[in-house]
């Protein structure tokens, strides 16, 4: 009809609403599919990094548990220490892999938010500060855990190369170390056998309860006088290799 602006029954552009599958173009110029979390990371990296983080966390947790529930005497105990140390490093790497995802998502939301929204309590700025604080905490804890894992693994590796040492000692006491708390099922109960090494003082060697009971039974059976024994152990890792009654 003449006189109307939309003679061809055209729909005004203001009434066109994108459908649920339409893509949105954020302020940084990278297209983000509806439902995809915004991020300043490259798209391929943002897609792959979560899977890498999950794989590292899962593998690290398995190795840590394998090391925790491993034997406590002999070369096998050194292998368990190395396994646990490797698990700690992988788990820490998985936590660090999450940091770019969290910070990148918060930074993208902060960039896309209007200035008024950025300053609101709990707004984009608050989310960004929280993400950065979480990242700093994860990095610090990862550095502490990684340092401990490296020291433990280095000691076990050095003992595996150098071998154990042997000295005369005297059995002193046994101290049980049973896990407590909410996650006690993930830890193995252990016993510290304390020996007084001639010229070096007391030495506590950790092992499983069954291993400690077996050693104590053998020492009682032979009637070692005053607990005098010939002790063989790995000094850096603090792992018992063998103990025999001293004649």
SSE topology sketch:
Elements: E1 23-24, E2 32-33, H1 43-68, H2 75-112, H3 115-119, H4 124-162, E3 165-177, E4 190-197, E5 201-208, H5 209-222, E6 228-234, E7 239-245
Antiparallel strand pairs: 1-2, 3-4, 3-6, 4-5, 6-7
Helix pairs in contact: 1-2, 2-4
Stretches with pLDDT under 50, minimum 5 residues: 13-29, 32-36
Using only C-alpha atoms, the radius of gyration works out to 30 Å
The number of distinct helices, counting runs of at least 4 residues, comes to 5
What is the overall silhouette? elongated
Largest sheet: spatial strand order: 5-4-3-6-7
Amino- and carboxy-terminal Cα gap = 118 Å
How many individual domains? 2
Instruction: Tell me how many strands there are.
Output: 7
Strand-residue fraction?
15-25%
The helical percent reads 40-55%
The ordered H/E elements are: EEHHHHEEEHEE
Largest sheet: 5 strands, antiparallel
Question: Mean of residue pLDDT?
Answer: 79
Structural class: alpha+beta
What attributes characterize this protein structure?
247 residues; 2 domains; alpha+beta; 7 strands; elongated; OB fold (Dihydrolipoamide Acetyltransferase, E2P); two-stranded antiparallel sheet; 5-stranded antiparallel sheet
Give a structural overview:
The chain has 2 domains: 41-161; 164-245, OB fold (Dihydrolipoamide Acetyltransferase, E2P), CATH 2.40.50. Helices cover 49% and strands 19% of the residues. The protein is built from 5 helices and 7 strands, in the order E-E-H-H-H-H-E-E-E-H-E-E. The strands form 2 sheets. It has a 5-stranded antiparallel β-sheet with strand order 5-4-3-6-7. Helix 1 (43-68) packs antiparallel against helix 2 (75-112) and helix 2 runs antiparallel to helix 4 (124-162). It starts with 22 loop residues before the first strand and ends with a strand.
């Amino acid at each position: 009809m003449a006189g109307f602006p939309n003679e061809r029954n055209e729909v005004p552009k203001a009434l066109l609403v994108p459908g649920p599958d339409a893509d949105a173009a954020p302020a940084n110029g990278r297209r983000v599919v509806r439902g995809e979390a915004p991020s300043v990371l490259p798209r391929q990296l943002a897609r792959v990094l979560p899977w890498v983080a999950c794989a590292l966390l899962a593998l690290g947790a398995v190795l840590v548990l394998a090391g925790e529930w491993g034997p406590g005497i002999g070369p096998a105990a050194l292998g368990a220490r190395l396994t646990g140390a490797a698990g700690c490093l992988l788990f820490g790497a998985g936590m660090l892999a999450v940091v770019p995802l969290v910070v990148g998502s918060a930074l993208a939301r902060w960039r896309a938010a209007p200035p008024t929204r950025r300053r609101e309590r709990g707004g984009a700025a608050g989310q960004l500060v929280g993400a950065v604080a979480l990242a700093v905490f994860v990095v610090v804890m990862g550095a502490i855990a990684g340092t401990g894992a490296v020291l433990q693994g280095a000691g076990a590796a050095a003992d595996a190369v150098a071998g154990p040492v042997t000295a005369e000692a005297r059995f002193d006491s046994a101290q049980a170390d049973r896990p407590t708390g909410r996650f006690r099922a993930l830890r193995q109960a252990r016993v510290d056998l304390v020996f007084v090494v001639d010229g070096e003082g007391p030495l506590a060697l950790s092992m499983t309860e069954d291993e400690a009971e077996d050693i104590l039974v053998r020492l009682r059976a032979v009637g070692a006088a005053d607990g005098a024994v010939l002790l063989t152990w790995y000094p850096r890792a603090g792992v018992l290799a063998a103990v025999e009654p001293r004649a």
